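Known limitations

Files may contain more than one protein. Parsers should not assume a single record per file. Below, a two-record file is shown to illustrate correct handling: read the sequence, read the token line, then continue until end of file.
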Amino acid sequence: MLAIIRCIIAFLPVQIYRTIILPVVFYECETWSLILRDERRLRVFENRDLRRIFGTKRDEVTGEWRKLRNEELNDLYCSRNIIRVIKSRIMRLAGHVAHKEETRGVYRILVAKSEGKTPLGKSRRRWEDNIRMGFREVG
């Protein structure tokens, strides 16, 4: 009975994370234009929260308590990381938009070319650039 209670207590924070925190993070993520800095921040956010949920681990060799490594967190959490979920949602929205008629506003916004001068310096990554990178990653 005590083992079942411990299992439920360990399972509860993960369920809270999946049902409350992740939907807030994923809200409108399909329209984001992710840059590497954003991806790094999201990974740090996910690992920090998972470390809070799973706590520390006792080292078998030294007997000291230590933080869990990222690989250990991924093994314990058993779910896709946050970046893959966001990229898959972006790709899914791009597929929906690509199947729209050419007269629809969403399609026209996706394929439209901006007019006017562009600012100096390196151009910012656009949503369309993320779609192309996603197709290259997927193959």
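...continuing to the second record:
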Amino acid sequence: MECFACHRIELIRRAENPHFVAELAESYVVLADEQAYTGWSILLLKDHHEHLAGLSLERQGRLWEDVAKVAAAMTREFKPARINYECLGNELHHIHWHVIPRYANDPAPQAPVWMRSPDERNIVLTREDEAALAARLRRALQTGDGP
């Protein structure tokens, strides 16, 4: 069975992934398909591995630095009240991190985003809005590492 993340990475490499934001040390940053939380991003490990513990500590550290850079850029650009970090593997068996900005108007600020129904989360942007959002995050990533 083909890995969904590996397919998305192949599209990035062919410059055909409209969700693409940036390439970092260990990951590709993409906007999540669902944008109920403006700026929700996913960092896809550049190569296929299913278990974080299977990576060397050095690679884990570089991947975490990628996550921290995205969070800092989000903080500067979108001014969220909080940021959630999730490394899941239940559905997508490819190491990836969700970096999810949570805002003051969040309908359920103490609940994981996954508790909202798919219909509530599934806010899909137009190509133009998605490109503008990706450009904002890309610029924020280029302006520095700190908040």
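Parsers that stop after the first record will miss the second one. For reference, the second record is described as follows. The chain has four helices and five strands.
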